[in-house]
Here is the input.
Amino acid sequence: SEVGVDVFVRPRLHEEAPNAQRVSLDVGVTLQPSAPWLSCAPFLALTHGGKGFNLKVSPGQLPPGAHYAEVAGHDSSSPRRGPLFSLPVTVCKPHANLAAPHAPCHVAFERVAFSPGHIERRFVVPPRGATWATLTLRVRGAPRSREPAGSVVYMYSLTQLLPQKHIGQSSETRRVTMGVPDEAQGAGAPATEYVSTLACVGGVTLEVAVAQWWMSLGETELDVRLDFFGLSPSVEQLTLDGRTLFSSLELHSFRRTSVEPEGSLKTLRRACRPLQAKLVPPAAPCGDVGIGDAGVGGKTPIYDYLLSYKFALKEACEGVTVRFPSLSAQLYESGYEAQLWALFDAHKRLLRWGDYYVDKTKLKAGEYEVRLQLRHDSPAHLEKLKDMPMVVDLQIAPVALSFHWSRASALDDPAAGPKPPLRRLLEPHTRVALHVASPAAPAIAEPGDTLLGSATFAKLSSEGVGAGKRPGGWPVTLFVPPAAKKEEPPKSASKDKEDETAPHRMEAALRALKISQLVKLSPKCKCKPPKEPAAAGEAAPLPHEATAVRYEALLAELRAECAAAAAPPDAPPEVPPLLPLLQAHLEHAEAMSEGRRAGEELLRGVVAAADEVLSLLDATQIAAALGVPHVDPDDKRAKQRREVDEAQKKALVGALHLKAAALADLHKVAAAAGAGDGAGDGAGDGAG
Here is the structure.
């Protein structure tokens, strides 16, 4: 069969060539194919805008294997100058096309001869629907070999070219050491067979390249066999929505296959938006001319773009990966000149740096910052990345996936009966529905995070050759839904809850209200000197004296009420009713003693008020109660008792503090009075 390919040729002149030279360009080009299976027009008129032609490739008569040819374009006016351009053409004709109707699912190349450094290439088209292949290598000594070695080393490479995919993700290269069969070596001889399983895509040409290591002497023969299997899901990437109970898909196979799905989620992915984006203008040249980013000699200046991200870890993680999905794993394909990222801890210490490729690192709990630097000659192109998210992948304990053959089983419907076994046989070109339950997200996950993992759907018997399933499986993603509402503890029964309308509770509330009014009277009891002296024969008004009388009357009334108050036996623990009143009176006495030079009487009032508070408290009992470090959180009475003990401790410490301060002030007053009396006696003796 003949294949036509459209080719376009565009001349490239020097960047400083004048426009007149570009417009006047008109070259007659003679096209000369180097192989008879290539055909095209013999002449091409080439201008600055470019010109296209149609190339026909006829590989029908070519033998299987790789074939190379080229189309050379010569200047018709000066053919001795050599070709102006050359168009390389490579044709890989398969040795076995298993995608053809009624083709088998395997291919074998037997007794392929090898010698040191010799390479053999075979091209195979896998069956449509194949998802993995098993490679079997079986070595034997060649009859013509003169230097048989005890073992031989081979290199093999299996490659498929897939669009927009790195070749490292669709190829496998390994070195294998195998033993040459020799009956004299007995049971300890090295193995003569090697088996490997790899993922593949059906219908895409697979190159099988095998070579004998150049240092491995002797001539050998190798049997190469490829077996293809396939169990394809209806979606290449299974997406589980945490807001739904399960997700569904279909499985189909091109050959009879045992189905036994299994999978897990092992990575938590969290996205972070940049906190800061900064465009750095080109730097001035340093040193010699041409060194720098400012664009010397007509060169385009290069701009730097700095992005800053922050994230936090609540606990240490063994595998943390910093990733920029739009830029990672793109080196020569990247649209930016360069990129570099660095990871810092909360103390600005550099922990790790990277570029295009990702790698795992171990981090402790804490806050971290990532800075990304990009370079390009277009500021507008860099500004597009100001909101580009960064993702952080965290390695977590595997979260197992649950698979079901029916919706009722996925919903755990009791009417569905016992769950059927997962293992079943799928006949060729048939489909079966599979349901995957959405698992519960781990505690570390937050709404908006995604969990990543993989799943395999086939599992051949252990007697078969190879792994029996697709290596690496199929990707699975779970979107973490909003967190479930936390269950509130059950409310206690009405008999356990204290009645706020009980008589003793109402009396306590009234006493507390009266004590608050007593506290409000305290500041008005202080004596303030009048602004103007009173006239002769008139008594000066003393409003504080009336307030003090009201205060003493209310205090006496509250003392009587508190002394008569009694709580029922089943009431919860509480402080003595008189304690709040005496605490308020102590604060009143302490406030009245402030700002007085000679306040011995008031200071003794503070000491007396403090002693009244201390008489209600047992320091030994309080210390013993608070000496127990822990209280049962489920014991309501114990918690109430602890609150009462804490309140009494606070009252005890406050009373002791005020009493000590008042006693110290009394000592100062007594010392000052003694010094004054001594000075007066000395003056009287001198006068006599």
